[in-house]
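Re: weekly structure request thread

Next one in the queue (376 aa):
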Amino acid sequence: MLTLIEGAQIHSPAPLGQQDLLVADGRIAWMGKGLTVPVDWPLTRVDAGGRYLVPGLVDPLAHITGGGGEGGFGFRTPELSAREALAAGVTTLVAALGTDSLTRSPAQVLGKVREFREAGVSAFMYTGSYHLPVKTLTGTVESDIMLIPEVLGVGEVAISDHRSSAPTHDELARLASEARVAGLLSGKSGVSFFHLGDGRGALAPLRALRDGTDIPQRQLYPTHCNRNPWLFAEAIEWGRAGGWVDLTTSSFPDLLDDGERLAADALVALLAAGVPVDRISFSSDANASLPRFDGEGRLIELRCGQIGSLWQEVVAACGKGVALETALAVVTANPARALGLASKGTLGVGQDADLLLIDPDTFAIERVMSGGRWRT
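Done, posted below.
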């Protein structure tokens, strides 16, 4: 079956103007104007009516098996469904474990990833969790990345956080090196994805890896960089030096009162500070537990990350004067590049047909296509 989307304002994420787009066999087969199609072709035409046609969203961090439990077993967060992800415009995501890697396991994540794939979401995963030694599927990080197609790298390893395993410099260096080499050998990113907490060390462990080892900075992917003022200040310098800066879109008013920045506000500040736009990404932290602790580390409150926040913060950024092209890049092309997913995050001939039709007035997501099939 072929699908011809006609009269769309295409953003790749760069604006390409009003064009038609042909989908065949799950990929973009043609883009342009005036395509002549034989009458006997099995073609479905969709009149986009001037709507924006943009890439499906790429989410570098989602806890699809649920997360947390920092307040005990009654505080575990629920699993995410593929239907929820697609309704939020997310067509590609990377799943991870968090604090709990005992009652939740990499095998559970892999099973859920494969469930998502059958439902039309291009789901991947990180091996490991917050803690070292790393919990793996096959015995080592290297073999997980090399032998399991869905495993892109290792994460989300916690640093500068009281919930971490207090990893040493040498432990982190060995971990990132192992992931990188496995990525090279398997044609994957081999990225090391790091959870940043509220500890005063902030990005110091990653700077030490960058400056004291031969690991390329692009292999080190820190998230939650908007969670407090001191981490955000260091993230500006990290991004200026060419490092990835990932901003979390799930937030709550009391977290903002404690010093967290909304992802949209953080994006504006990063751009104003001279961080290249192609080094910035958003992630939802969907279905993670978002705990709030008092000054002595006791849990006060716990909420759940929302996958819908990813698109909400794109819309909010546009409302603050960020160009649509820029706001789209941080949820499409940039994370796809960081994760080594070459067929994701942009619209062009040969790319995967993961598409969103957007109302140009309200920015509402009207339709979602993944793998060449309409899902909503």
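The longest strand covers residues 2-11. The chain has a mean pLDDT of 96.
Next request, please.
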